[in-house]
Write a structure and sequence with these properties.
The chain is mainly α. Helix content is 65%, strand content 8%. It has a two-stranded antiparallel sheet.
Length: 153
């Protein structure tokens, strides 16, 4: 009898456990959560990021109300600046204070990565990442387009 749980169960369980752990670790160390980390990192990595782009991408993970709360926290604390640049377009820029917080959170996240990969070789970790990326690509390529039959050859 196979006692290894199915892939979907393991993926969802790891994702949930990682989300909980990161939220707790960031909150205890910095008074913020995973959403703050993600928003600041995204703003730093993409200097051309707009609020509209961020909100659309974040909608895959958060409700509109949660996104609004997150953005309010980031702007109210001076970590992020929203700058209207054209009608319907708002630039989302990380501030110096936001960079400082992100640097502090990065150290916490580095420790999270150490905990997550304890007992896992670099080679095994890289294999897991490549394998999951391949599985995702396979599913994306096989996803039926509107009006197609997914079982047709």
């Amino acid at each position: 009898m196979n006692t290894t749980p199915p892939l979907g169960y393991l993926l969802k369980s790891v994702d949930n456990a990682l989300h909980r752990y990161v939220d707790r670790a960031l909150h205890q160390a910095h008074g913020v959560g995973r959403g703050h980390w993600q928003a600041l990192r995204t703003a730093q990595d993409d200097p051309d990021l707009t609020l509209e782009q961020f909100s659309a991408e974040a909608a895959a993970f958060y409700t509109p109300a949660r996104i609004d709360d997150l953005l309010a926290s980031l702007t109210d604390n001076g970590w992020l600046h929203l700058d209207p640049v054209a009608p319907g377009t708002t630039a989302m820029r990380i501030t110096d204070a936001g960079r400082e917080l992100l640097e502090q959170m990065s150290r916490t996240q580095a420790r999270t990565a150490q905990i997550l990969t304890e007992g896992v070789s670099t080679e095994d970790y890289e294999t897991v990442l490549r394998t999951l990326a391949t599985m995702l690509d396979n599913l994306d390529a096989a996803t039926p387009r509107s009006g197609t039959n997914p079982t047709a050859p």
